[in-house]
Amino acid sequence: MQRIDTKSSGTGETSMSSNHNHNESPALTAIQQAAAVLIEEYVNANPKSAEAFKDAKASGIAGGTNRASIFYNPFPLTFVNASEATAVTADGQQITDFLGNYTAGLFGFSPDPVKLAVIKAMENGHALGGAPNLTEARVAKQFTKRFPSMDMVRFSNTGTEANSYAIHTARAVTGKNKVMMYDGAYHGAWIHGGKAAGPLDTPYEKITVPYGDADLIARAIAKNAVDLAALIIEPVSISPMVYLKKASPPAYLQKLRETCDAAGCALIFDEVMTSRLAPGGAQALLGITPDLTTFGKYYGGGLPFGGFGGKRKWMERHDPAHPKSINSGGTFNQNAICLAAVEAVFENLWSEEQCTNHNAKAERFKRAINELAIKHDAPCRAYGTGSLLTIIWQKQVVTEEHYADNQTKHELNLVAKMCVFKCAELFWFYMLQRHNILAGSPKLNYLTLPTTLKDSDYDHFLKAMAKFFEAHKTELAMLSAETKAGLEKTPEEVELIAMSTTPYDENGQGSVVH
Ligand code: PLP
Hints:
globular, alpha/beta, single chain, 39% helix, 15 helices, 8-stranded mixed β-sheet, binds pyridoxal-5'-phosphate
């Protein structure tokens, strides 16, 4: 029997282990055999990356990595330098980056305006620690201008901190305790929903709901209203497990908006990733206003940065002069170097026009991938919104939207077969070994496209993909055949699906994490 461990271990990837009997799945066997050839080539081509990983382990770094999401088998590539959209590995391979550091690398590697701003800030007196600096207000104005939902903002160093601050703000303002989120959601290193939660998770009580049915979630909110401080969600996210990053329909979000108002709890949009989808974030794209918004990742242009903001009602308690002030500290929250980087991003790299154009170009790329897959009759489709794409190795539409009545329900139709997931690995090693392209990670072909990709890079990707469809025609045909009846599930597949979408008990029984 196959088993997929759906625990998110960081930035949107799914980790898998298998004690699968290969005879049960000829497609899986064929895909794994094809991948084994490429993986052997990878091992032979990357002795220095292998050595670097071995050294990292020997150095005392637990598991040889400080970030679980960038580890993959047999060992991760080590980058030694990079510029624009090209990274150079320890073994000298130059690769074109379609991963984009899981959204943090939106402007490519070390963008010049950021580099110059950081050097200037350093020359101007280090981090100007211990007192306010002039960059803070300028950066704050950029956020309040772009995001009408924010009267006030506060900065942090990471998205995890931003979400922690926002959740604690909601708990302080409402005087309530519980926090609701999607089952399997990832809102930071210690903020997971439901079964994704682990020993590091924050100790407040979480209620987790499955993604997709706004009526069900509304009932859950109403039922828990007495002690519910916040609902935190990404406005663009079809499933925390597969990372399709598909926009939730406005009517779905509107229903949640109204229910949060009625229940007196905060609606928090985690826009750490999704704010890149429109100049005013996904909230502007979808026309729904949250109470609190969090951001991070790419705004630092490669440097650590995060923050949160919202209407005065929610944020004013951060004023040290407020009678019920929340004492919210953070040594590096106004670090002048990181803020100089953010200012350079706003001024040079992420105007409203740059943002809109980039997302439009990415939509065209998504369409081109899908046209190519259809032309080759390949079990492959790209999903996503704007510059956040995921390639899924099945023909069936992964999401089913029930718009007819009230536009509030989505269903996830991921074919839960190991061969579907393993095809992502085959594709990743193929694109790297044969065409010097970083197509997400071997665990998931999640492409968060950097602005530094040129038209010729997109063309190169599409040509390489066409060659992949030809080179692995046999495996892909077997995959198509095996997933044809994909939605009629075996008991094992039902179990896998259940692991990704836990049925919700409206009393919170069995879905509450302490
Ligand atoms: N929220 C979302 C949606 C994320 O994807 C992430 C990181 O992947 C975070 C929050 C946490 O951000 P950080 O890694 O900067 O703490």
